[in-house]
Amino acid sequence: MAAKQDYYEMLGVGRDASDTDLKKAYRKMAKKYHPDNNPGDKAAEEKMKEINVAYEVLSDAGKRRTYDQFGHSAFEQGGGAGGFQGGFGGFGGFDIDLADLFDMVGGGGSRTRPRSRRGADLQMQLTIKLEEAVFGAVKEITLNSYDTCGTCKGSGAKPGTHAETCKRCNGSGGERVQQQTLFSIREMVIPCTACKGEGKTIKDPCQTCRGQGRVRSNKKVEVSIPRGIDNGQRIRLAGKGEVGEKGAQPGDLYININITQHKLFKREGNHLYLEVPITFVQAALGDEISLPTLGGDELKHIVKPGTQPGTLVHLKGKGVQNVHNPNTVGDLVVKLIVTVPTSMNEKQRDVLRKFNDEMGDDYKNHKVRWMDKVKGYFK
After folding, report:
1. pLDDT 10s per residue in the chain (379 long)?
2. DSSP strand E in the chain: where?
3. Which of 153, 266, 310, 377 would be a feasible disulfide site paired with 273, CB 3.0-4.6 Å?
């Protein structure tokens, strides 16, 4: 008997293919081998069937994990991929995912363990100020999600009662069943149909949570914002997601960070940028000015005589701390903007005219020489 072709090779994708990659590959192959495009071609018809089986397995997360671990053998002896459409035929309609089956079976199928219904992971958006992102902060958020039932303390049982060991599976969480195959009777272990694989049953369920051990409610969570976190990054809070059923492990909470724009400061990576206006007299003669910082303090800076418009001043270590490496801190980059008066009286204009005359031809010819350079460049 010829060896079966690998499902990934059959669809022409790698073993790390995403769901989108699988879907695109399946559509491409289906278009090529579909009977409507190959009338009367039995080989194409058989190939289409194989492609359908391959895609059915790989597009299902549970079946794919099982296939990656056990290969084609996981689907043989009457339990082939075609037999897993909607569960195992012949078991009274009891559905079971392949991943659940192999998770339940331990030590060659002789023992089982209860399935863990881990709580769901949660995601939420949190908008913070630039100052909070740079210096860190502690924020309190409110989540509406499943939390431990206060009445039964998560057990799912009515107060004063408790869950009992399942009599059908004796607490193992699984039961043995037989399946008739073409050549033999196969014995296998599936989750117990009485306790759903939990190993325990609740005779008197809690009225508040209806035996689930959890209820939906608003709960407050404290979030520590690390110094230097950037826009679009996220914070993971382990165990702060939804509580699992009947005391099972909770999920995680992921906080996606959005940072509001600041009126004065802009951030790029670990650097902060600031524009500071100075007068043309300060630029020409020099002066001592005060520079604001994001923390509210002021820094003194000496403007050198003859400072040109757009001059950049780098203040080392006054920027943002790297969120992954506290020893790396960016700069505060200050751009000096020379302001020009928009309105002057006649006396002020006369002073400027005299200033211009006093500067002589060399100063007045700066513009002429610059225009000559521009003309020369384009020639």
Report:
1. 456 788 888 899 888 888 888 989 988 888 888 877 888 888 888 898 888 888 888 988 878 877 776 677 666 544 433 333 333 333 333 333 333 433 433 333 434 444 557 888 999 999 999 999 999 999 999 989 889 999 999 888 999 998 899 988 888 888 888 776 666 777 777 888 888 778 888 889 999 999 888 999 898 999 999 999 999 999 999 999 998 888 788 999 999 999 999 999 999 999 999 999 999 899 999 999 999 999 888 899 999 999 999 999 999 999 999 998 989 999 999 999 999 888 889 998 898 888 888 877 666 555 555 556 556 655 5
2. 122-128, 137-148, 164-165, 174-180, 185-191, 200-201, 214-225, 234-237, 253-259, 266-268, 271-279, 287-292, 298-303, 312-315, 332-339
3. 266
For the domain spanning 122-163+202-259, the CATH number is: 2.60.260.20
**Which segments of the chain does DSSP mark as H helices, in order?**
7-11, 19-33, 42-58, 61-70, 98-104, 130-135, 280-285, 346-364, 366-378
Domain 266-378 CATH superfamily: Urease metallochaperone UreE, N-terminal domain (2.60.260.20)
